[in-house]
Amino acid sequence: MKRLFLSISLLVVSKFSAQGWATEDQYIQKFAKYAVEEMEKYKIPASITLAQGLLETGGGQSRLAQEGKNHFGIKCKEDWTGKTMKHTDDAPNECFRVYDDPRQSYEDHSIFLSTRKYYANLFKLDMKDYRAWATGLKKAGYATNPRYASILITKIEKYRLYEYDNTNSNEVLYAVLKMYPDLKDDRTFMAQLEPSKAGKKAKEPVTVEVPYKQTSYAQQQKRVERIKTKAEILNAILIKSHPNDGLKYIIIPEDTDVKFIANKFKVSESRLMKWNELENETLKKNSIVFLESKNSSGNTATYKAESGENMHDIAQKFGIKLHKLYAKNRMDEGQKPSAGQLIYLIDKKPRN
C-alpha cells in the first residue's frame, strides 16, 4: 500500500512539474513586453535586454530583483538621487538603485546604456544582431565575467529571445503566446491580450494636475485633454545621439521644466543646469538639452550665426561648452553674435 501511494505521489509530482513553467520561462512571459517597449524607445534589442535581465536576476529570483525591483544590477553612481539598498556584489555592502516598479528598472537600464559614452558604439550596430551586441557589451566593460557575451548568446538561443527583436509592443504578447501555447489557459495572461485585439497598445495611465478655473464643464474637459496630451508627449521623449562625438541629448517637445526632465532621465537637476548652462529651470519647446557634459570643441570647423541666435543657442546646437565657445571666438561672456558672423567651433579665431 505504501509503495502504491508512493508511486501515485511521484506520478502526480512529475506531471505537475511537466506542466509547470521553469523560472526563466516565467520571467520571459512576464517581462518580454517591457523589453520590446524599451527596444522601440531606445533601439536596444529586446533579446539582449531580456537575456541580461534573466542573467542578472537569476530568472527573477535575486535579492536585488525581489526587494529592490532592480533587474540589471545597476549601482547607485554619483548621479542617482532615488532610493537605495546595500547589497554585496563585487565588494561588501555596495550601493544599488531601488525602483518602485520593474518597468522603471527596464527604462533605467536603457537610459544607462544610451547615455554613457563607452556604450556609444553599440548603437551603431544592427539592432537585430544580438551576437554583435553581446560581444559589444563585454568589450565596453559592462561585466567582468570573461564569458559574459557567450552566456547572453546561449540564453538568447536557448529561449529563442531573438523572436522578440522582430515584434512590436502591440504584438509582443502574441509572440509570447506563440512561444508558450499553454498560456491560452492562463486567464491572467489572456486578459492582457484584450487591449491588443482592438489594435491598440495599452497605455500607461498619465496623472495630470489641472489648475482650477471657473468655467463650463465642456471647457474644463478640453483643458484636461490638452494637459493630458502634453503630459503624454513629454513622457514619450526619446534620447538622441549628437553628431558631436555621440553626445546624448533630447529635444523638448512641449514647454516643461528641469525637474521633470531630471526625474524622467534619473539625472540630478543641478547637473542638467550645469551641463546646459541654464539660467533658470524653464525649458521651452524645441530646446536642446544634453544629458551629459558637452565637449570643448565642435564636430565642424565653423558656423555662420543666424539672425536672433545667441552664443548659448549655438553652444547647444553644436554640443560645445559655452565658455569654451566664447573663448574660441575671442568674445566676452554675454556678447551676442551678429547675423552672418563666422563662429569658430574647433580652432580659435585668428587675430585680426
UniProtKB/TrEMBL annotation:
Domain of life: Bacteria
SMART domains xrefs: LYZ2 (SM00047)
InterPro entries: Glycosyl_Hydrolase_73, LysM, LysM_dom_sf, MGlyc_endo_b_GlcNAc-like_dom
GO molecular function per UniProt: amidase activity
Gene Ontology biological process terms from the UniProt entry: defense response to bacterium; killing of cells of another organism
Keywords: Antimicrobial, Bacteriolytic enzyme, Hydrolase
Short name of one Pfam family: Glucosaminidase
SUPFAM superfamilies according to UniProt: LysM domain
Domain LysM: 301-345
PANTHER family: PEPTIDOGLYCAN HYDROLASE FLGJ (PTHR33308)
Protein name: Peptidoglycan hydrolase
Species per Swiss-Prot/TrEMBL record: Chryseobacterium artocarpi
